[in-house]
């Protein structure tokens, strides 16, 4: 029996170097995305990574858990728990926790290479009928 990898249907144009590499997708249920932080992401001379990169990784994982071509983010409730530094390997694990009409709630946690949780958040996503920029 051959197991086929689910096809990514959303956010096809994003940079793997900036938002992460897709490790797994279970459409409508979950995803896992990894990102190794780089010097270009640092916010200061001590190697602290700007939180926007951690948030972006989690947001990307949430979008992939929904995995619809027209999914967009409506709102989020995020909590940064530990600092991230240059060279950290982050893993975002996202899970769809609620589906109502065209809305999806997605819970996401981001762990570093030591298994320490650095971020957690809930994302409220909406699946549109067409691209958000189409009239």
Gist of the model:
The chain has 135 residues and is mainly β. The chain has two helices and six strands. It has a six-stranded antiparallel β-sheet.
The largest beta-sheet arranges its strands as 1-2-4-5-6-3
Compute the average pLDDT. Answer: 95
CATH superfamily caption:
Hotdog Thioesterase
CATH architecture: Roll
> Helix content range of the residues, please?
10-25%
CATH topology (fold) name: Thiol Ester Dehydrase, Chain A
Instruction: Using the alpha-carbon principal axes, give the shape.
Output: globular
- Unreliable runs: none
CATH class: Alpha Beta
Number of strands: 6
| Oligomeric nature of the chains | single chain
**Euclidean distance between termini CA atoms:** 44 Å
The structural domain count equals 1
Radius of gyration: 15 Å
Sheet-strand content, in percent, reads 35-45%
| SS-derived structural category | mainly beta
Major β-sheet profile: 6 strands, antiparallel
Structure description:
This protein is mainly β and 135 residues long. It has one domain (16-127): Thiol Ester Dehydrase, Chain A, CATH 3.10.129. The chain is 15% helix and 41% strand. A 6-stranded antiparallel β-sheet has the order 1-2-4-5-6-3. A hairpin with a 3-residue loop joins strand 1 (21-26) and strand 2 (30-36). The longest helix has 16 residues, at 51-66. The radius of gyration is 15 Å and the shape is globular. The model has no long low-confidence stretch (mean pLDDT 95).
Task: Give keywords.
135 residues; mainly beta; Thiol Ester Dehydrase, Chain A; 6-stranded antiparallel sheet
């Amino acid at each position: 029996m051959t197991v086929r990898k689910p096809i990514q249907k959303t956010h096809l144009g994003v940079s793997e170097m900036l938002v992460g590499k897709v490790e797994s997708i279970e459409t409508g249920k979950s995803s896992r995305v990894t990102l190794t932080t780089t010097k270009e992401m640092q916010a200061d001379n001590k190697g602290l990574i700007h939180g926007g990169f951690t948030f972006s990784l989690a947001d990307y994982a949430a979008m992939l858990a929904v995995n619809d071509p027209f999914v967009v983010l409506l709102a989020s409730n995020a909590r940064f728990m530990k600092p991230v530094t240059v060279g950290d390997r982050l893993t975002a694990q996202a899970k769809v926790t609620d589906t109502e009409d065209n809305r999806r709630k997605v819970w996401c946690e981001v762990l570093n290479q030591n298994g320490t949780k650095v971020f957690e958040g809930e994302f409220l996503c909406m699946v549109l009928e067409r691209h958000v920029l189409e009239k």
